[in-house]
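From the methods appendix. Each design record in this collection lists the tokenized structure first, followed by the designed amino acid sequence. Records were kept in a plain field format so they could be parsed without special tools. The example shown here is representative of the layout used throughout.

RECORD:
FOLD TOKENS (432 positions):
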């Protein structure tokens, strides 16, 4: 601790080194979740190491950031030359880059000095990437700093990208992650369902933390009105099989339109209009829009009658996202706009919406049930008002930033003050 730094500040807000693929504040699920949890953290007590190639200065006010680069990966010089030269074989570059995901970054003298100057008390990481996980271990060992893993998807059990060539290396990733789980004093998950499953699976408690929202300053959407066509808005990314359920909704709206109930889906794609699948882009019940056209913190002037949440019904994706929670859900509930959720019952976000009554949840792929649910929302303004109000109540009770951030802060204080497990100890346990 520096001589000029008050001891009470460090005890209240430990110096946190975030080591993650995405920078804090990036417009993605992980970046936005981290930004909300570190919302009140003193900027000089938070530093980050990340992989993002773009300048993060516009996304975060952090004074201290370190961007990892490919040339710093541990690999033979000839491999570095191949991936850096545009004229190299595309196939060879692809193979090397795939294998490089399971490498790690060198702790250069410059990086060690940068970390030492920041003098962190605790490491925070969502892990996920093999090189990030190995770097967390390396930094933790070299500087004797406790690490806090925060799991946001179930990639430990169900890797989304299976590849026979890299399976043995993925086993190393899981082994490293399990070692961190065993040695960490504090472990975090994205939700209560994941915490319960991970405690059963790995024999350690996990504290759930997901994205939070300032409900006191968040504008509330006006009371529902009758509008034709009724506007259903989907905001966010279209990856992980979300196109198919959105098409189901679009088809149901077409069917309802033939009966005189007019509705449309406006898609505010996270990655822009170009990321929208042509099947959606050309559908008569779908209208694409730029995400720049909507202010996520000021929806009161945006013509939206209902917010859509979808999950894929594809078995592989269900297994991967089963315990994940949507980072947008707290914001969606805080707007007071009714939520229409469509996806499998196994998905944690679907179960959360259904069990808390904060939206209408259609949890089976049944066209008749889907059409019936949409018709109810389109014709019943009282139902829309009650669902919106209930969502707002749940956001205030469970996701208020002042409450969540304080609990998050206490967890990191506990981690920073914990005794560090001997880094040379070997973890003897099954991978699964």
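DESIGN:
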């Amino acid at each position: 601790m520096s001589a000029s730094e008050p001891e009470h500040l460090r005890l209240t807000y430990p110096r946190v080194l975030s080591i993650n693929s995405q920078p804090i504040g990036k417009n993605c699920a992980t970046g936005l979740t981290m930004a909300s949890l570190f919302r009140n953290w003193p900027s000089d007590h938070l530093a980050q190491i990340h992989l993002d190639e773009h300048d993060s200065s516009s996304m975060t006010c952090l004074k201290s950031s370190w961007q990892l680069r490919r040339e710093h990966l541990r690999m033979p010089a000839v491999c570095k030359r191949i991936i850096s030269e545009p004229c190299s074989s595309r196939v060879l570059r692809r193979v090397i880059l795939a294998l490089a995901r399971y490498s790690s970054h060198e702790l250069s003298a410059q990086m060690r000095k940068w970390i030492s100057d920041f003098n962190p008390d605790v490491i925070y990481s969502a892990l996920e990437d093999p090189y990030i996980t190995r770097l967390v271990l390396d930094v933790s060992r070299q500087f004797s700093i406790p690490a806090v893993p925060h799991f946001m998807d179930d990639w430990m059990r169900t890797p989304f990208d299976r590849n026979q060539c890299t399976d043995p290396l993925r086993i190393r990733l899981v082994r490293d992650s399990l070692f961190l789980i065993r040695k960490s004093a504090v472990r975090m998950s994205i939700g209560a369902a994941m915490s319960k499953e991970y405690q059963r699976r790995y024999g350690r408690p996990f504290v759930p933390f997901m994205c939070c929202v300032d409900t006191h300053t968040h504008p509330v959407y006006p009371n529902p009105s009758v509008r034709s066509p009724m506007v259903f808005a989907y905001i966010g990314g279209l990856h992980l099989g979300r196109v198919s359920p959105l098409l189901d909704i679009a088809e149901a709206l077409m069917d309802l339109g033939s009966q005189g109930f007019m509705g449309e889906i406006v898609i505010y794609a996270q990655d822009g209009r170009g990321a929208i699948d042509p099947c959606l882009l050309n559908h008569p019940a779908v209208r694409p829009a730029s995400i720049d056209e909507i202010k996520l913190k000021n929806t009161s002037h945006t013509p939206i009658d209902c917010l859509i949440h979808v999950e894929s019904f594809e078995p592989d994706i269900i297994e991967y996202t089963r315990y994940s929670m949507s980072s947008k859900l707290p914001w969606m509930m805080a707007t007071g706009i009714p939520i229409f959720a469509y996806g499998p019952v196994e998905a944690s976000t679907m179960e959360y919406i259904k069990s808390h009554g904060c939206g209408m949840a259609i949890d089976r792929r049944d066209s008749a049930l889907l059409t019936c649910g949409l018709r109810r929302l389109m014709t019943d303004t009282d139902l829309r008002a009650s669902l919106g109000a209930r969502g707002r109540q749940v956001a205030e009770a469970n996701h208020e930033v002042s409450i969540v951030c304080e609990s998050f802060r206490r967890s990191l204080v506990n981690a920073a003050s914990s005794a560090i497990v001997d880094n040379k100890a070997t973890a003897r346990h099954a991978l699964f």
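APPENDIX NOTE: The chain has 16 helices and 13 strands.
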